[in-house]
Write a structure and sequence with these properties.
The structure is a single chain. The chain folds into 2 domains: about 150 residues, no CATH class; about 120 residues, no CATH class. Helix content is about 40%, strand content about 10%. It has a 4-stranded antiparallel β-sheet with strand order 1-4-2-3. The protein has a two-stranded antiparallel sheet with strand order 5-6. The protein has a two-stranded antiparallel ribbon with strand order 7-8. Helix 2 packs across helix 3 and helix 2 packs antiparallel against helix 7. It is built from 13 helices and 10 strands. The longest helix is centred in the first third of the chain and has 15 residues. The protein is elongated and about 65 Å long. InterPro entries: DNA-SBD_ScoMcrA (IPR058813), HNH_nuc (IPR003615), PT_DNA_restrict (IPR011396). It holds the Pfam family DNA-SBD_ScoMcrA. It comes from Streptomyces gossypii.
């Protein structure tokens, strides 16, 4: 059984562009728990709050419940659920999972494979991260689910059949935006080398976002992270959106985030393609949280 292929197939139905990371988040969480205690069973009532937090922070824009992946992940052959009455999930209802004392764990065959081949865990986690989230969130997601991956494990994560990123993407984007953040204008360098500037995908690469200038922004590290977390977005007229859900009372938070509302993007330079409407629309519907603040 090819566990890497099965892991990759968790998101196949989302190829239309709709984000549905419920199952990947639960499997990441289960892999993290397995790494710390291979015999541990996850009682739904004990992990419900942890899963809620993961779905709130890294899940889809619309409200969802951890009961959905806890029940449905069984159909993918990587997860099993039991109650006091034996094997099998009582359903997707939160009340049923609580009342029946439902517990979940990695499927027996998968647990055996992970014991035989310890490096499999890191490769499975890497596939889940790469296929469902942008690189800017990988580190904090591993920490959030308690995964301790060695650097050597994180370097070879995906099967050779996966499409490859265009290594020219960063240079193309930074050149198009003249080496300054499209949100705040930051343009720091150490000598000739730009520092703290990154090429951000508007439509995530994990969701078929192309490595092209009209799907990219040059952003400083802070605004890249906030863009991928849905705090910032791009609206009509290529003006910056700031989520009403963002709260920051310090002068730094006001200056670097809330004051951006309604400002036009900086760049790209004349002759370079601006972010396409299709990619802006995807980010707004799939990543940006809540309603935008009025222009500052």
């Amino acid at each position: 059984m090819d566990w890497l292929e099965r892991t990759a197939q968790l998101r196949q139905w989302t190829r239309s562009g709709t984000r549905a990371p419920h199952k990947p988040l639960l499997l990441l969480y289960a892999l993290g728990r397995f790494q710390h205690d291979a015999e541990d069973e996850l009682r739904y009532t004990a992990v419900e709050e942890d899963l809620k937090r993961l779905l709130t922070e890294y899940g889809p824009v619309h409200k969802t419940t951890p009961a959905y992946p806890f029940h449905h992940l069984v159909s993918d052959g990587v997860w099993e659920v039991r109650t006091a009455r034996g094997a099998g999930s009582p359903g997707t209802g939160v009340r049923e999972l609580r009342a029946e004392g439902a517990t979940g764990r990695l499927a027996a065959e998968l647990r055996a494979a992970l014991r035989r081949e310890p490096s499999l865990l890191g490769r499975m986690a890497g596939i889940l991260l790469d296929l469902n989230f942008p690189p800017s969130l990988h580190g904090e997601l591993r920490e959030a689910v308690g995964l301790g991956l060695e650097p050597a494990e994180a370097e070879q994560l995906l099967p050779a059949v996966r499409r490859q990123r265009d290594r020219r993407m960063r240079d193309l984007i930074l050149t198009a935006y003249e080496y300054q953040c499209a949100f705040c204008g930051y343009d720091g360098r150490i000598g000739p080398v730009p520092v703290g500037l990154e090429a951000a995908h508007v439509r995530w690469w994990a969701f078929d976002g192309p490595d092209q200038v009209d799907n990219g922004l040059c952003l400083c590290s802070l605004h890249h992270k906030l863009f991928d977390k849905g705090v910032l977005g791009i609206g009509d007229g290529h003006r910056i959106l700031v989520s009403q859900r963002f709260v920051g009372h310090s002068s730094a938070a006001r200056e670097h985030v809330t004051a951006l509302a309604g400002r036009p993007l900086i760049g790209p330079q004349p002759g370079a393609r601006r972010v396409s409407a299709a990619h802006r629309s995807w980010h707004t519907s799939q990543v940006f949280h809540g309603a935008p603040r009025p222009a500052a």
